[in-house]
Amino acid sequence: MGASNLEPDLEAGQQTSILKQSSHPVCLIFHFLFRTAAICIYFFGTWVTSNFVLIFVLCVLMLVFDFWTVKNISGRLLVGLRWWSENKEDGTTTWLFESRDPTRPLNAVDSRLFWTGLYVAPAVWIFFGIICILTFKLQWLLIVAVALALNFANVIGYTQCDKDAKQKWATGFASNMLGGSAASGVVGGLMSRGISRLASSIY
Predict the structure, then answer these.
(1) Does 108 map to a domain?
(2) Nearest-angstrom CA–CA distance, 22 and 17
(3) DSSP-H helix ranges across the chain
(4) What is the distance between the alpha carbons of residues 31 and 28, in angstroms, rounded to a whole number?
(5) pLDDT in tens, 20-72
(6) Which domain holds residue 143?
(7) pTM for the complete prediction?
(8) Does any domain span residue 182?
C-alpha cells in the first residue's frame, strides 16, 4: 500500500523535459544544432585535422545552414516572427516584418530558448575573436567575421521585427479601444434620444 501510494507522488514530482514542454521540439533542436556544430568545429577542429581550409569550409557551411534555419523556420515557429529584406530599383533596401496574431499565446519555453540562442551565439564568437587577436591567430578571424556577420544579421532582424510587432499590437489595441468607445458613444446617444422621445410622448 505504502509503495503504491508513493508512485503517483514520485511521478508528479518529476520535472518534464524541455523538449516535452516545447510545442516544436524538432525545430528547437535545429535552432541550436548548426550553431553549436559551427562552434564545436571551430574549437575542436584542430584536434582532428591541421587543414585550416577544411575547418573554414565546414564552419561556414554550418553557419549558413544556421542562418537560413533561424531566419526562415525557427523564428516563425518558436516566436511567431519572420523578417526579410527587399532591394528596390533605386538600390535601397527595405526591411519587411511578419508577426503572429497577438491573441495566439506563445510557448514560454520556445520563446525563452529562441532568444537565448539568438543572443548567446554572437557573444561566443566575439569571445573567440578576442582570443584570436590576443594570440595573433589572425587567419581564424575570417571564420569569426563570417560568424558575426550572419549571427548579427538575425539578431538585428529579429530585434527590429519584435519591436515592429509590439508597435502593431499596441496600435491595434488602441484602435480597438477607441472603436469601442466610439461605438459606446453612438449606442448611448441612440438610447438617450429614444428615452427623451418616450418621455415627451408620455407627458
Answers:
(1) yes
(2) 9
(3) 2-13, 18-21, 25-48, 52-69, 75-78, 108-134, 141-202
(4) 5
(5) 999 999 999 999 999 999 999 999 999 999 999 999 999 999 999 999 999 99
(6) 21-157
(7) 0.75
(8) no
